[in-house]
From TrEMBL:
This is Deferrochelatase. GO terms for biological process: iron import into cell. GO terms for cellular component: cell envelope; cytosol. It catalyses: heme b + 2 H(+) = protoporphyrin IX + Fe(2+). Residues 217-400 form the Dyp-type peroxidase C-terminal domain. Involved in the recovery of exogenous heme iron. Extracts iron from heme while preserving the protoporphyrin ring intact.
Length: 413
């Protein structure tokens, strides 16, 4: 510029407030200070999104009770032929060290890629689990939990075996796409000759701060999804989600752990979009606009399954999703759903290959996911618009303390 004057644009000066809970931009003296810092080449942070972190060490693994992040990767690995228990333990030790460093915002040992070098932890979580086949491959069949029995077949399944199950399962979530990718890439590299990638899926959610205030997320059908999820404040939350800390028996190593059911569910979005809004709401049992049940109230109003409308018909239809999935109609069965949406391009017929990477957490899948899915399989109106294309069940051990690694109680006791 003439005279060498530096001009700071309004866009650079104000930036954006993208983090969850970010307030209005500071004005007056605060804005002047920010502007001065920008001129001096030391811009103030515009958001706390990158600095948020979750602890790696603790009673439970991260990535279960934390809100699902904006970016997610799910992956399964198979142990290489001849891999024994000792080699599997060394792998989990390496993986745990990488996860602990990255979740704390530190550069992992021997990482020279620079992919996430200038990023904070960005709420990164890395979660590890064992598939049923892991125990046979490592000579630990006697320690395989009874709850890790194969899931039953459901009539709506169209499962691709190449994208299902696996010896080891990894869930990665972060609010920055580069951080999430980098974690996945490092784990894959550090698997070395011990494990080979079986399948991998990418997902996403709404970015924190994209709404004016915290809101329940929406899925690709436009529906608010997760309203009736168990909450950590519920008196029975731990009983529903985690294996008791005093768990005994051959699988005592699962104390404090949980079981993850993973399903890739393609949504028939073109078919769904042909329904009227009124019909869509009846299929779900909630208003699209605010998630309120059709029995009345707001999103968080308890559903009244006995409510009838002026014509004497049930306000919540007999095959409405929220009725069929309700704990009240499933003898109290419930699970913690923590999902990511996905979009993998378009199919040959032009329909989007998109839907939900469904992850359900529970203390026992035979008492959580299985009875509910059986009910949905028989009478859920929403099932006509879904295709279950991949599936997996994994035993996710409890967390570890500093100096330990995930799965150590299984692999070294």
């Amino acid at each position: 510029m003439p005279g060498g004057t530096t001009v700071v644009s309004r866009r650079r000066l104000l930036g954006t407030a993208g983090a969850a809970g970010a307030g209005a931009l500071v004005v007056g003296a605060g804005a002047g200070a920010a502007g001065a810092a920008a001129v001096r080449g030391r811009p103030e942070p515009l958001t706390s999104l990158g600095s948020a972190s979750a602890p790696f060490h603790g009673a439970h693994q991260a990535g279960i009770v934390q809100p699902a992040q904006a970016h997610g990767h799910l992956a399964a690995f198979d142990l290489a032929p001849g891999t024994d228990r000792r080699a599997a333990a060394a792998l989990l030790r390496r993986w745990s060290a990488i996860a602990a460093d990255m979740m704390a915002g530190r550069q992992a040992q021997d990482d020279t890629s620079g992919v996430a070098l200038d990023a904070g932890p960005s709420s990164l979580t890395v979660t590890f689990g064992f598939g049923r086949s892991f125990f046979d491959r490592t000579g630990l069949a006697d320690k395989r939990p009874a709850a890790l029995e194969p899931l039953p077949a459901f009539t709506g399944d169209a499962l691709d075996a190449r994208r299902s199950e696996g010896d080891l399962w990894v869930q990665i979530g972060a609010d920055d796409a580069l951080v999430a990718f980098h974690a996945l890439r490092l784990l894959q590299k550090k698997a070395g000759d011990t494990a080979r990638l079986r399948w991998q899926m990418n997902g996403f959610n709404r970015t924190p701060g994209a709404t004016a205030h915290p809101m329940t997320g929406r899925n690709l059908m436009g529906q608010i999804d997760g309203t009736n999820n168990p909450k950590p404040s519920d008196a029975d939350f731990a009983d529903r989600v985690f294996v008791p800390e005093d768990h005994k028996g051959a699988d005592a190593w699962m104390a404090g752990g949980s079981y993850a059911v993973v399903r890739r569910i393609r949504m028939l979005l073109d078919t769904w979009d042909h329904l009227s809004l009124e019909r869509q709401e009846k299929v779900i049992g909630r208003r699209q606009s605010d998630g309120a049940p059709l029995s009345g109230g707001t999103e968080t109003t308890p559903v009244d399954l006995d409510k009838v409308d002026r014509d004497g018909a049930l306000a919540i239809a007999g095959d409405a999703h929220i009725r069929v999935a309700s704990p009240a109609t499933n003898r109290g069965a419930a699970m913690l759903r923590r999902a990511f949406s996905y979009h993998d391009g378009f199919r040959d017929d032009g329909a989007p290959d998109a839907g939900l990477l469904f992850i359900a957490w529970q203390a026992d899948p035979m008492k959580g996911f299985v009875p509910v899915q059986r009910k949905l399989d028989r009478g859920d109106g929403l099932s006509r618009f879904l295709r279950h294309e991949a599936s997996g069940l994994y035993a996710v051990p409890g967390g570890c303390e500093k100096g330990e690694y995930v799965g150590q109680r299984l692999l070294e006791d």
